[in-house]
Automatic annotation (TrEMBL):
Pathway: Protein modification; protein ubiquitination. Belongs to the SINA (Seven in absentia) family. The gene is Siah2. PANTHER family: E3 UBIQUITIN-PROTEIN LIGASE SIAH2. One of its GO terms (molecular function) is ubiquitin conjugating enzyme binding. Its EC number is 2.3.2.27. GO terms for cellular component: cytoplasm. It comes from Ptilonorhynchus violaceus (Satin bowerbird). This is E3 ubiquitin-protein ligase.
Length: 184
């Protein structure tokens, strides 16, 4: 199905649906969580789409930044999104608050590369929460936006913490997460 966009595999019809679901040449969906955006396009068009259709997303330059999530006490499910640009690539930083069971909320923080899975293997990210006497750190390889935030959460490829932990590190309802991207 994706031969016109570069896929050169020839598969038996029984293997085709499984491959098409993960094919690097399939169109990219809008990676912005929490929106009902149905945009699809090439990898090269993703950043342009984000800058024009999702203008509220801030982009910071550099390998070390602080991702500030404001008003973490907002009720219900909330997504905070920011972009980080370094090493000639763009990374989407996501903090997602979801209700897991009857009033119990959890936070999920992860980094996605605006790129392919193969490109994502070349990077490592570190998320750190700092408090007066506490530190919480998570290190991992970013996922590709092809996989998305929900797959990162499903695979536990993210920093997970509850509301009590968020409040331990928050300052007046705002949570600062130190984000460091490095090359492998």
């Amino acid at each position: 199905q994706y031969a016109t966009t570069g896929c050169s595999l020839t598969l038996h019809h029984t293997e085709k649906p499984k491959h098409e679901a993960i094919c690097e040449y399939r169109p990219y969906s809008c990676p912005c969580p929490g929106t009902s955006c149905d945009w699809e396009g090439s990898l090269e068009a993703v950043m342009s789409h984000l800058m024009h259709a999702h203008k509220s997303i801030t982009t910071l330059q550099g390998e070390d930044i602080i991702f500030l999530a404001t008003d973490i006490n907002l009720p219900g499910a909330v997504d905070w999104v920011m972009m980080q640009s370094c090493f000639g690539h763009h990374f989407m930083l996501v903090l997602k608050k979801q209700e897991k069971c009857e009033g119990h909320q959890q936070f999920f923080a992860t980094v996605l590369l605006i790129g392919t899975r193969k490109q994502a293997e070349n990077f490592q990210y570190r998320l750190e929460l700092h408090g007066s006497c506490h530190r919480l750190t998570w290190e991992a390889s970013p996922c590709s936006i092809h996989d998305g935030v929900n797959m990162a959460i499903r695979n536990s490829n993210c920093l997970v913490f509850d509301t009590a932990t968020a409040h331990l590190f928050a300052d007046n309802g705002n949570l600062g997460i130190n984000v460091t991207i490095s090359m492998c």
